[in-house]
Amino acid sequence: xxxxxxxxxxxxxxxxxxxxxxxxxxxxxxxxxxxxxxxxxxxxxxxxxxxxxxxxxxxxxxxxxxxxxxxxxxxxxxxxxxxxxxxxxxxxxxxxxxxxxxxxxxxxxxxxxxxxxxxxxxxxxxxxxxxxxxxxxxxxxxxxxxxxxxxxxxxxxxxxxxxxxxxxxxxxxxxxxxxxxxxxxxxxxxxxxxxxxxxxxxxxxxxxxxxxxxxxxxxxxxxxxxxxxxxxxxxxxxxxxxxxxxxxxxxxxxxxxxxxxxxxxxxxxxxxxxxxxxxxxxxxxxxxxxxxxxxxxxxxxxxxxxxxxxxxxxxxxxxxxxxxxxxxxxxxxxxxxxxxxxxxxxxxxxxxxxxxxxxxxxxx
Length: 364
Description:
By secondary structure, this protein is of the alpha+beta class. The protein has helices at about 5-25, 40-50, 70-80, 95-105, 155-175, 180-215, 235, 250-270, 275-295, 295-310, 345-364; strands at about 55-60, 65-70, 110-115, 130-135, 145-150, 315-320, 325-330, 340.
């Protein structure tokens, strides 16, 4: 019969007590403790940072923790024996024993799901529960057992530097409209050059892939991890492509895509703009960019002052009454451009006199 995890733990504790009593009876001085980092903590950090180790995030007593399943830990240790070399003298331990040591060193905490009943409309319990609670017996188990990391994950140096640099970059982006003209040009051409480099690399690798796939029937992707989401920085810029282990494509598919590519190139060449249209488009785009780059807060302030002067120089109308009872209206503008007097009224009266004579003649 195999011993359970609790019995194994009690056996190890009893052996430790006996060894301790033996050491006290002997006259040999105790060994000095290793001042280096704990090997089991190094092992735990490597396992936690490994890309193939599956884990999730959940809430444990109002604290957000990263946790994993017991069976996933056992399978991971079995599939990655190279990580056991970090334990040096303890590398022969099994996955269950290693997990118990991590629990004893408070690097792991065994948890249990809060909701232990199947919810209405569900057929089974959630594989990765969102809420956990601490389990009473802190012993490793594979069957429906969850374990949360109890240590703070170490952050790389570049993340710490980036956390200080990013607010400064954000503030600089917000203040871009008030940058000097030379700084605006540097930012504009740097961003445009970076985008051009990215699109050039993507188009170049696509052309190489299509050419080799049509001619030789091989799949060759240069910079194979350039679009990978989970790739590290070193893997992202890996130039040499991976070996093509898939089956060779049929010649009918290669001929079909070759014909489609030729037709696409012919359509683009037929509808390509001429030199005059290209020049007009370039001029229009250049004008838009110049309007953005040549903006200056002093010009904006001068425009506001001109608008204010125009409002202050409003038209003033003076109304006076003459000795004969006529009303003289004089319109005076502050800049002295226009002036209207009573002469316009007299001209209107003279124009109306012939109509009165015609009316009297018809009456007679």
